[in-house]
Specification:
This protein has 137 residues and is mainly alpha-helical. The chain has one domain. 70% of the residues lie in helices and 0% in strands. The protein has 3 helices and no strands. The protein is rod-shaped. This is R body protein. It comes from Skermanella stibiiresistens SB22. It holds the Pfam family RebB. InterPro entries: Killing_trait_RebB (IPR021070).
Length: 137
């Protein structure tokens, strides 16, 4: 609208005085076009001032969204690093177990001396199960 009003504007000499309702002719048309241009410029200014609060809120929301997404990206990166460390620790522990490291030095549990000891332990367990009690250790 501003561009059209600027193309149609012929000069500033007719804008010195306001247009009267009963006035006709080229001067009246020039003043009418000049007032249209003034209206267009003032409407553009009002549009800019009216949209400023919405634009500032939009910028605030975009900043908050960017900060949130950056923190989520950092959390994902940390989880990936922890997963890598976990896999490395698991592989090293398995290699230590398979190589006969400290776990190989642990003595095996004592074996019963005879079948009589095993039979007594089995009888005690069966008796405890029959009475729903905890077997003695």
């Amino acid at each position: 609208m501003v561009a059209r009003a600027a193309r149609e504007f012929d000069g500033a000499e007719a804008m010195d005085r306001p247009c009267q309702d009963d006035e006709t002719g080229p001067d009246a048309a020039r003043r009418t076009r000049g007032s249209a241009m003034t209206d267009a410029v003032s409407q553009a200014g009002a549009l800019v001032l009216g949209s400023a609060p919405a634009q500032s809120m939009a910028m605030l929301y975009q900043s908050a969204a960017q900060a949130t997404s950056l923190s989520m990206q950092n959390a994902v990166a940390q989880q990936q690093q922890m997963n890598t460390i976990s896999n490395t620790v698991t592989a090293q522990c398995l290699a230590l177990l398979l190589s006969g490291g400290p776990a190989a030095r642990v003595a095996p549990p004592p074996q019963p001396d005879s079948s009589a000891v095993l039979a007594d332990a089995l009888k005690t367990l069966i008796a405890a199960l029959a009475t729903n009690q905890t077997p003695p250790s």
